[in-house]
Amino acid sequence: MTLAELSLIGDLARPTRLTVPDLLGWRQHRVRVSFECATSGTQHHRFAGPRLYDVLSDAGPGFDPVRRKDRLRFLIAVSGADGHHALLSWAEIDPDFAHAPVLLAVSIDDTPLDHAGPQLVLPQDRCGARHISGISAIRVDGGYDYRPPTPATPGRGSAAAP
Ligand SMILES: Nc1nc2c(c(=O)[nH]1)N[C@H]1C(S)=C(S)[C@@H](COP(=O)(O)O)O[C@H]1N2
Ligand SMILES: [Mo]
Q1: Ligand 1: does its nearest atom lie under 6 Å from the Cβ of 118?
Q2: Are 119 and 135 in contact (CB under 8 A)?
Q3: Is the CB of 40 under 6 A from ligand 1?
Q4: 20, 29, 98, 109 - which has most CB atoms within 10 Å?
């Protein structure tokens, strides 16, 4: 059976493809989690793997590292191979902000995820829906650089500006 591959794409200096064995190259963390599911009830699992923050930081997200406010526009879009999808904000996992201990699990209950692909683990979530299994892509997106529209100045033709 082939190894699953995870693509790290988007606003990154070093976009890459990683297998689950590649994810053993970062510092490993272990966690026990319980989460509730509307359809299958409460589940308990043990997961191990690197922090999502450590893996994404090494891919070089495109913000100015010394300006904390520059990180606030970054989103992390996590997709499973089946199309299940969730968004996190960069600030959610950044140690200077919410510092959530989100993992990219390489094993569940001591079973390796080499073929299934890594699983997102959010110990802070009460509901299981963001524990995306079989992750195929993570897109870092800094495109949310919102600027309010400049108010038109009456009588100077600004509404017709290009
Ligand atoms: N790839 C993928 N991951 C997923 C889901 C899914 O549909 N696809 N469902 C989520 C939901 S709703 C829950 S509760 C947890 C546990 O789901 P399970 O009971 O199917 O393991 O996985 C989450 N991860
Ligand atoms: Mo669920």
Answers
A1: no
A2: yes
A3: yes
A4: 20
**pLDDT tens string 64-110:** 989 999 999 999 999 999 999 999 999 999 999 999 999 999 999 99
Beta strands per DSSP E along 2-159: 5-10, 16-19, 29-37, 41-49, 75-80, 85-89, 103-105, 107-108, 111-112, 119-121, 135-141
The closest ligand to the CA of 120 turns out to be: 1
Residue tagged 């001591």 (tokens): 110
**Shortest CA distance to 54 belongs to which of 29, 26, 77?**
26
- What is the CA(81)–ligand 1 centre distance, in A? 12
Question: Domains plus CATH for the chain?
Answer: 5-141 (3.90.420.10)
**What tokens appear for 119 in the block?**
């699983």
Which of helix, strand or coil describes residue 51?
strand
Q: Which two tokens stand for residue 124?
A: 């802070």
Query: How many residues are there in the chain?
Result: 162
What's the 80 CA to ligand 2 centre distance in angstroms? Answer: 14
SS3 of residue 55 by DSSP: helix
The pTM score is: 0.91
